[in-house]
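For this section, I looked closely at a protein sequence along with its fold in token form, which I now present.
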Amino acid sequence: MNRLTLITVAGFGLTALLILLAMFQVDRQWRELAEIREAVEEQRDRIGDLRRELARRPAATGAAEGQERPTVPPAFQRAHEASQEPDFAPGDWRVHALGQGLDTLTPLVSTDAYASEIQNYVLESLLVRHPETLEWQGLLARDWEVAEDGLTITFELRRGLRFSDGEPLTAEDVAFSYDFIMDEDIAAPRQRAYYRRVQEVEAVDEHTVVFRFAEPYFKALSLAGGLPVLAEHYYGRFREDPEAFNNSRSRLFGSGPYRFPAAGEWTPDSGRVELERNPRYWGPVEPSFRRLVWEVIENDSARLTTYRNGDIDLYQARPREFEDLLEDPALMERSESRAYMSPTGGYSYIAWNQREGAETPFHDPRVRRAMTFLTDREALIQEVLAGHAEVAVSPFNPRSPQHDDGIEPRGHDPERARALLAEAGWEDRNGDGVLEDEAGNDFSFELTYVQASTDTQRVVEYLRDAWARAGVEMVPRPTEWSVMLEAIDQGDYDAITLGWTSDIEIDIYQMFHSSQIGEGDNYVGYSNPELDAVIEQARATVEEGSRMALWHRAERHLFEDQPYTFLFRRETLLLMDDRFRNVQQTRLGLNADAVPVEWYVPAAAQRY
């Protein structure tokens, strides 16, 4: 081997050695950083323990005689009471599963309930509802006053509010949040539809903000108090470049008990969302969990397997399997089960495309009513959902005063359905078993649904067979969630089955007012001028009794027109790891998603 070769070999060897040393150094630095981070979190937990211990003791020495310790704000009282339990300990993770992938986590741009659930831990509002009394309580606001005419609401903010980067949260941020939503260049049409009733939001001083409404609105306090407060120093830059915001996927930043460490970096194909405890949280009660995690597991069976393996902590069971799982001793030895009808739970429905230019049979309300008569919802609930649901009549929860008890759901009546279809011009003209119109076109359409849901697939198959017996040909169109959203935006579907979440009293303007066609959530293109007028009148009526009478009129319009076939309201069937404590059923449902966080895990049972 010549000298040049020896030098070359030695050079390669030296380079390899330097690379190995560098890798070792980087690995050591990562370990040291991880150890530092762990030490900081442990120190924070110790400080939290000290704060809680001090909270249990009598007033500190040196305080004026008879002076009381500052009380915990009502919005934090339930979480505070949990923190006083003898076995309370901060720490551990809570790991959820998402049944579908997320398109974006950016507030205002996102449209699905999963994104909203995650945002709820990061963004905060002025007010929250007490889960038992349902009364409003101050969160960011410590006090508020509603003018006699209901057109002006003044909020006083708490002192010491801060975003997760330590910057103060002031009334200017509240006013900015409203202005940002109302900016036509920002992709927030759904929110703008509601906030158009607000004339202006003014920051009077650092701690005082005033909402002025252009006209009376029954949910004025809910609307103003529920405004998600966005940081002007973070989101303000997007006023100059709105498309950057509209196309973003993870611009999630706020003042809440948790923060999104991947803000600006997360992508929809990550398959996982993690929130970490906000170390600068302003609230008087420290959030119990160190980390909240959501794993995207779209397949139903895979979610159950993951729960069995202990890799997720909560599993929302399918109806038929729920009864079987309750008989599984190994699983139930470490699980707690809950079955309940959420008072704010939403409903499943089939939306009939009535958009202008859509070539479907569903422009005729007689056809839509016939499709409801052809849908045996009671049998569907028993066959597919094992009885764990109730028939839905309308958007209004039957337990709410919005619902008119005099309206009963349409029963299964194929003969009435055939009569209505014949009136609309649909008959079996050639004897092939399929209805045709006068031009000879078959009554055939596609039903779009999310393919990952086993239960939804079973519902679709059941409906296909049932409708076929009446001469209606339905072709299932399974699709991914992102593709379904595109189909909705473009009107590229015949019918679609989905679900809406609900509230104690809901505003149906966004879904059913004709002004929201192509702009809001009236994606079916439904239009009824009489209903529009009733909705507008109800929204402007503050007195509850008069407003409920108007909602009853609106419900009858929807019942007659059937822009949707309202299918059912499901029971929530939940299994959860039994290490969690303070699990409670409230008038708002299970307190799993309560913010401030009410669940905790005793130190001896912590897993992470």
In short: The CA atoms of residues 366 and 424 lie 7 Å apart.
